[in-house]
Amino acid sequence: MRASIFVFLFTLGVVFGGVLQNSLSDEFINKINSLGTTWTAGRNFDANTPRSHIKALLGVKPRLGKVLPVKREKLGAENLPESFDSREKWPACASLKVVRDQSTCGSCWAFGAVEAISDRICIHSGGKFQVSISANDLLSCCGFDCGNGCQGGFPDAAWKYWVENGIASGGLYGSNDGCQSYVFAPCEHHTTGSLSPCGESQPTPECTRKCDNSTLNYNDELHFGESAYFVDSHEDSIKAEIYNNGPVEASFDVYEDFMHYKSGVYQHVIGGYEGGHAVKIIGWGLEDDIPYWLVANSWNEDWGEKGYFKMLRGSDECSFEDSIVAGIPKL
């Protein structure tokens, strides 16, 4: 039954795969919902949102080849649960429950990395070390090797930088959490919510290698990785990696329909390619017999399912399973 559903939905994607005239229009949203797919669309972004703002949120640059080794985490499929949520296995780790906001900067590549790294430091220390790793420090100080800051970067290079150079502690904008907080304030990307409008995309912050709080020493606040790697793209290998070691960073191809995700298990059905995006996978499950990955986005809690979404699992939807990155912290 499930296989026939996928074939039917793939056919819909082929038939309706062209770009509609205005991908933020009510017509576009209604078209998605008329197809009877596995998810529900609704308005997240105002119909007049500049295309440049949408593009600026998608900060994963294309790359040829891989700069990290590939690891296959071993755990028999029979030992993996049907559903899993990292927040439930490691409830003491506060970072697992935080949805960040990349604001007006194409820093998703950095956010996906520091979010998963923060979680893994807590998980691998048995909850002893609760730290937020600074998106700002990674974004501003990992230069050419990582890409181009707010204009996009490479998730694998972010993890490599963590191993070789370390990343300072630091939390959300204005939080005074750790060494270096994010410099861009949360903003209202969406049609609902109480935040200020986002405005134009911002330039990459300057790398300072110092802490906001003068009582903290930057070098003392650096956290390093023991290893960094791509995770083998086999579904069970990805699940085993998350189950054993914690959340991972995924990058994938974003199409126009994704911007309207509200609930259900996302798969691309209509609209053109928009760019590459990076997110954090925290678990998996089934919804109406449809397998999904449970994913945290970085567009604040007003988007999707309170900042989260479910991505179709097991078929490399939108190349989602092809570029999973992770690592082990040095404690």
UniProtKB/TrEMBL annotation:
Residues 80-328 form the Peptidase C1A papain C-terminal domain. SMART domains: Pept_C1. It comes from the Eukaryota. The keyword Hydrolase applies. The keyword Disulfide bond applies. This is Peptidase C1A papain C-terminal domain-containing protein. Belongs to the peptidase C1 family. Gene3D superfamilies: Cysteine proteinases. Keywords: Disulfide bond, Hydrolase, Protease, Signal, Thiol protease, Zymogen. One of its GO terms (biological process) is proteolysis. One of its GO terms (molecular function) is cysteine-type endopeptidase activity. Pfam families: Peptidase_C1 (PF00112), Propeptide_C1 (PF08127). InterPro entries: Papain-like_cys_pep_sf, Pept_asp_AS, Pept_cys_AS, Pept_his_AS, Peptidase_C1A, Peptidase_C1A_C, Propeptide_C1A. PROSITE patterns: THIOL_PROTEASE_ASN, THIOL_PROTEASE_CYS, THIOL_PROTEASE_HIS. Residues 1-17 form the signal peptide.
